[in-house]
Design brief:
The chain has 354 residues and is of the alpha/beta class. 51% of the residues lie in helices and 13% in strands. The strands form two sheets. A six-stranded parallel β-sheet has the order 1-8-5-4-2-3, with helices on both faces. It has a two-stranded antiparallel sheet with strand order 6-7. Helix 8 packs antiparallel against helix 9 and helix 11 runs antiparallel to helix 12. It starts with 16 loop residues before the first strand and ends with a helix.
Length: 354
């Protein structure tokens, strides 16, 4: 290679401070001060999480001298995003605090990006790996869209708060991370067949998080704060792997395409992470990997492993498998043609999903 031929350059943005553990919610003002944040904070939260955590954060921030406003919203839709941004403009917001589950975090990170401001992630549940990522899922009339958002300056994950959320949410977050097992295989497959750009660092981070959850599946149980402690680090690091890759590639492959297809076929029946976990069982079979190991880990955690446990019909699983390759242009084990109805039915039957 001649001098000057190499031209690659890219910026990688990470959360600069991840504070996780028992009782750390009260340290939110300290985290804000450490980052030099001042002025008015807009807390993006929901009706349930307001009482659990947002009111506590509000009082602590006001005691520390911050002006605080609150946007209490519902799902991560374009309509609610527009509302958050309108409130932010009206109250002269200087930075955002996303206090809640995945949808509130997604709204905060998108509003921060669109308005050119910083934000801090304060999860009250851990239902997926978007806690620390720069990706957001926003629904419009055509379904959910995966969008570039803003990486949080910091994360404040209070295990004493997160353990109060329904256990199903934590189990779904673990399933979402376990599904990295097939996402990285899809990425490697695309690298070999299509020469797709590949990051060994992001690949290793994403795989590490999946293996950590699988290896510790016996320790993840309901109503146990230590279970949140075991799970929260891999869930956060999974989000960081996206920052390293500059895309969702290390954490989103054919299993996510199956999940997105289900969102259109059977909306609201199951959680995102639950669907990805079941998808990962089947996609690992297509890759020739140990699909039963994924299935066993999900079962130990208490996440769904079948259509019945997802609350959907066998035909809806088959339909989602047949249409998954159409969800996005990303190259995966499903290829560009996808599965026939017969192949999909056989796949779901062999892996005990139906």
């Amino acid at each position: 290679m001649d001098e000057g031929d190499f031209t690659k350059a890219r910026s990688i943005l990470f959360p600069r401070n991840v504070l996780a553990g028992h009782g750390v919610l009260g340290q939110t003002p300290d985290v804000c001060r450490d980052f030099g944040l001042s002025g008015t904070a807009l807390i993006v939260t929901g009706s349930k999480t307001k009482n659990v955590a947002a009111d506590i954060v509000t009082n602590r921030m006001m005691d520390a001298g911050y002006e605080v406003q609150m946007a209490t919203v519902g799902e991560a839709t374009q309509e609610n995003l527009d509302r958050v941004e309108q409130i932010a403009r009206e109250c002269g917001t200087n930075f955002f605090l996303g206090v809640g589950g995945g949808s509130k975090i997604d709204l905060a990170k998108m509003a921060a990006k669109n308005l050119g401001q910083e934000w801090i992630s304060i999860p009250t549940s851990a239902s997926h790996d978007g806690i620390a990522s720069g990706r957001a899922s926003i629904k419009n009339e055509n379904g959910p869209l995966s969008l570039d958002a803003k990486v949080p300056l910091g994360v404040v994950a209070d295990t004493a708060i997160i353990v109060q959320a329904p256990y199903r949410l934590l189990a779904a977050g673990c399933a979402d991370v376990i599904s990295n097992s097939t996402a990285v295989k899809d990425w490697e497959y695309a690298k070999r067949l299509r020469g797709e750009e590949f990051s060994r660092s992001a690949y290793s981070l994403a795989l590490y998080t999946a293996e950590t959850i699988i290896d510790n599946a016996d320790l993840i149980k309901p109503n146990l704060e230590e279970s949140v402690w075991v799970a929260i680090r891999p869930i956060i690091i999974s989000g960081v792997s996206m920052a390293v890759a500059g895309s969702s590639r290390p954490t989103s492959g054919s299993e996510h395409m199956f999940s997105h297809a289900l969102d259109m076929i059977a909306p609201g029946k199951a959680l995102h992470g639950e669907q990805c976990g079941v998808g990962s069982i089947m996609m690992m079979y297509l890759h020739g990997g140990d699909w039963s190991r994924i299935r066993e880990a999900l079962a130990k955690i208490g996440a769904p492993t079948s259509a019945k446990e997802l609350g959907i019909t066998e035909e809806q699983v088959i339909e989602a498998l047949v249409n998954a390759h159409k969800v996005r242009s990303r190259f995966t084990i499903l290829g560009h043609v996808g599965l026939t109805h017969e192949a999909a039915e056989r796949l779901a039957t062999i892996t005990k999903v139906i």
